[in-house]
Amino acid sequence: MKKIFYSLVIFLFFISGCSILEETNNTLNYVTETTEYFNELNNFAEETSTLISGKSTNNELQTELESKLTSLEETIKEYNTIEVPSIAEGIHQDITNKNEQLIEIINETQQNGEVAIDQFKESEIYQTIENLTSLKDQLEQLGVE
Question: What is the pLDDT of residue 8?
Fold first, then answer.
């Protein structure tokens, strides 16, 4: 009887340990994916800022911006579907809310399927990206960054 009891206790400890390990791995994966996402947002901001201040023609600028905005929109939508560990549900909700703002800005800067360069320059896309990436501090508080 004691052997069965001890075996049961060991089995229960093993199962609970596996779920803790799995949750830790999920959190690590989430932090890694979110950090990569923030890096992509920063790269977009740097590249488009340089592009806008460069001496390219309006046609070249428009084509390049359209490409970058389309890519950014796909990245945002892809990020919104990642698996979120329970410990990160709050921060992920904040990120997806700001992602929706970014998608709205992207849509507002396009007219008839083309980027309105002046509207893009006047948009709040850079401020929204900065607000999003400022959440990195909260991400680091998950204790794994």
Answer: 45
Residue burial 75-109, b: 16+ Cβ < 10 Å; e: rest: bbeebeeeebbebbeebbeebeebbeebeebbeeb
- For the entire predicted model, the pTM comes to 0.78
| pLDDT grade for 5, boundaries at 50, 70 and 90 | very low
C-alpha to C-alpha distance for 79 and 81, rounded to whole angstroms: 5
Q: What is the DSSP letter of 86?
A: G
Query: d(Cα 114, Cα 92) in Å, to the nearest integer?
Result: 31
Q: What is the CATH number of domain 2-140?
A: 1.20.120
Task: Please calculate the CA angle 32-93-134 and round it to the nearest 5 degrees.
Answer: 60
pLDDT of residue 144: 46
Q: Rounded distance, CA 14 to CA 5, Å?
A: 14
Region 42-60: mean pLDDT is 83
CA-nearest of 123, 101, 100 to 111 is 123
Q: At what angle do helices 125-133 and 2-53 cross, to 10 degrees?
A: 150
